[in-house]
Amino acid sequence: MGYSSRLALALLRLPTVPSSDSQLVAKLKRANPSLLRSWAKRQAKSVAARGGYLVTKMDDEARRYARVSHNDEVPLPPGAAETLRTDNPKLVELQAAYDSLDVAATAHTQWRQSFLKRNLSLAWFRGDNAYVWQFRQLRNAAEARMYLTLLDVESRDRLGLLKRLEEDGKFGAWTFTYGNRPPVSRDLLDSVNEISYLDAQMGLSSIDSLKILDIGAGYGRMAHRVSAALPNLEAYDCIDGVATSTFLCDYYLKYRQVPDSVRVVPLPEYETLADDYDIAVNIHSFSECSMEAIGWWLDRIAERNIDWLLIVPNTPHQLLSTELDGSMKDFAPLVRAAGYVQVDERPVFENDELRALIDLHDTFHLFRRSSAK
Ligand SMILES: C[S@@+](CC[C@H](N)C(=O)[O-])C[C@H]1O[C@@H](n2cnc3c(N)ncnc32)[C@H](O)[C@@H]1O
């Protein structure tokens, strides 16, 4: 049983208020509700302490590690707050189109409206939220651990991307600055790391007329970075099973003025995807989908001519789905059935010493089509 469940149980064991206390409660309630709240807090703390738990109020810094947060030091660009609203007619229309689709990609188990409400502040979509965890995964000492991440990523930055790609902290991204270096973020470091990995494994930067399909593309993090990094890019198609993600991706990539090679394909138009791509990428997305949805996407991949497939799951050594009842199922057999064999598996932070301190164990899983020449 996890810590939070054990704590919840300890709190649930709060004794029913004894009659002498219930008179006290009634008096407090009448006299002063805030006295009642303090009394209830003291009771909860003392029950938790008897169960071996210390309940204490988090300060602002600690709260960042536990909840959705964003950095508002960089203001939103003009018009963003007015556009990035859940009642924007464009988003409402897109949502209706996704809702009326009869495809398994919309059989959501995690990315439901309630999840989005809890995990996303729309206008600050690059904050620490459902798309890219920044503080929550790093927990305490985020600043030091981000520095170690930077050292690890920098050691494999064969294309010199950290010198070329910039982080401006727009739309709520948390940024970290070390000495005279330009600021970095989780968005920047993850993207540089992913590009370097694919370059080392399959020569991403030297493929003529490179074509990439990004399934579960989020707000367009990778599309933005790849299009800025690789002049050999001919096509980067972003697609997603969630209307809000497509809406944000479209907005963000326009904001970044990405080249025409980048396209945001709304799910209802999935049949307009190309027949050929060099690689399909799925970064922290299948892990948040049902087997049914994953199977549907793998069918779309299998019916196309795509030699490479990169999956970054949320669990290091297994490819696990998220089912409606909370269970997780192994979807590796579906990947094999789509015609792919695994050719590499390695931690995203390769340096063993740094990884132990970063304490993040995400893993690259790279597949090649068995019929690839
Ligand atoms: C953690 S975010 C990762 C986003 C992006 N790949 C990145 O790394 O920045 C998970 C993504 O999976 C998408 N997603 C969730 N359910 C999906 C489904 N059934 N089909 C396709 N994408 C889905 C979400 O909309 C979101 O964009």
Which structural traits does this protein have?
373 residues; alpha/beta; seven-stranded mixed sheet; 7 strands; globular; binds S-adenosylmethionine
The outline comes out as globular
Tell me the distance between the termini: 48 Å
Architecture of the largest domain in CATH? Answer: 3-Layer(aba) Sandwich
Lateral arrangement of strands in the main beta sheet: 3-2-1-4-5-7-6
Separate helix tally: 15
The ligands bound in this entry are:
S-adenosylmethionine
Number of domains: 2
CATH class of the largest domain: Alpha Beta
Poorly predicted runs are: 1-19
Q: CATH topology of the largest domain, anyone?
A: Rossmann fold
Number of DSSP-assigned strands:
7
What does this entry look like structurally?
With 373 residues, this protein is of the alpha/beta class. The protein folds into two domains: 54 residues, no CATH class; 228 residues, Vaccinia Virus protein VP39 (Rossmann fold, 3-Layer(aba) Sandwich), CATH 3.40.50. 40% of the residues lie in helices and 13% in strands. It has 15 helices and seven strands. Strands 3-2-1-4-5-7-6 form a seven-stranded mixed β-sheet, with helices on both faces. Helix 6 crosses helix 12, helix 8 runs parallel beside helix 10 and helix 10 crosses helix 11. It is globular. The chain starts with a helix and ends with a strand. The site of S-adenosylmethionine has 20 residues, from loops.
